[in-house]
Design a protein that fits this description.
- The protein is an alpha/beta fold.
- Helices cover 40% and strands 19% of the residues.
- Strands 1, 2, 3, 4, 5, 6, 7 and 8 form an 8-stranded mixed β-sheet that branches.
Length: 262
């Protein structure tokens, strides 16, 4: 958890400069405004165009305030969905980076339809007939992360976390003591190995010793290898096959059967 939240850990825009050339950021949801907590745009990945959407936390105090600490509002999810629909229209693959403690829970976000915006993305992402690659690069927090998380391939960086709730919030609810976050973190099974074992992600992307922040360019190269392999796997799949595969993948999640030993 501490490595996933490390203040120097690379964010979406840090990886963009290593992975994409000619990146052009797109702004606005065409309804309310632009949300700086989600970055969207088109760029060239190894000579081929793709669309990218990712959560951005910001580095210093000023940037953190501008990016709302990586907690998107409804206009952020609507912007991402607008850009992903554009990708589907022009048959461009989509890559999303998840790095948020969760969607912004403020009154203004709720007034503008926070839950509806996330739910809409879940439905519409499942219907897009292009390859979608999801990578958890830091914190994958609750529905705020899942609003960009419906993909054909879901990967996690080695020291990232992905959970329905933060350990602090979980501890406050279950144990009535936020100080028991360590116990909650263990129970939540939020690490990459846990989620791989449970079948909720497809693979773990290794990080350099000490974490991604120690060698961000090397981490980006490891991400590049995984994206390249995923695109190669899916390049001959038809839109119908991509949609059906994505649907089956998420339908199986959370379905477990255990035989009782006599």
């Amino acid at each position: 958890m501490q490595l996933a939240r490390h203040p120097k850990r690379p964010h979406t825009l840090d990886y963009v400069k290593y992975l994409l050339t000619g990146f052009q950021e797109l702004h606005g949801d065409r309804v309310f405004g632009d949300d700086a907590a989600i970055v969207c745009g088109i760029g060239m990945f190894e000579g081929k165009p793709l669309m990218l959407a990712g959560q951005q936390k910001g580095r210093d105090t000023k940037q953190k305030l501008i990016r709302n600490f990586g907690m998107p509002k409804p206009e952020g999810y609507r912007k991402a969905m607008r850009v992903m629909n554009l990708a589907a229209k022009f048959s461009r693959p989509i890559v999303t980076f998840l790095d948020t403690p969760g969607a912004y829970p403020g009154i203004d976000a709720e007034e503008r339809g926070q839950a509806q915006a996330i739910a809409y993305n879940l439905r519409e992402m499942s219907r897009l007939g292009v390859p979608i690659i999801v990578i958890v690069i830091g914190e994958g927090g609750s529905g705020g992360a899942l609003g960009l998380g419906v993909g054909n391939r879901v990967y996690m960086l080695e020291n990232s976390i992905y959970s329905v709730i933060s350990p602090e919030s979980c501890a406050a609810i279950i144990y009535r003591d936020a100080g028991k976050a360590g116990m909650a973190a263990d129970a939540l099974k939020l690490t990459a190995p846990d989620l791989l074992r449970l079948g909720l992600i497809d693979a773990i992307i290794p990080e350099p010793p000490g974490g991604a922040h120690e060698q961000p360019e090397q981490t980006a190269d490891l991400i590049r290898i995984q994206i390249r392999a995923a695109l190669e796997e899916m390049k001959h799949m038809s839109p119908t096959q991509l949609i059906d595969e994505r649907y089956e993948k998420f339908r199986k999640m959370g379905s477990f059967f255990e035989e009782r030993q006599q």
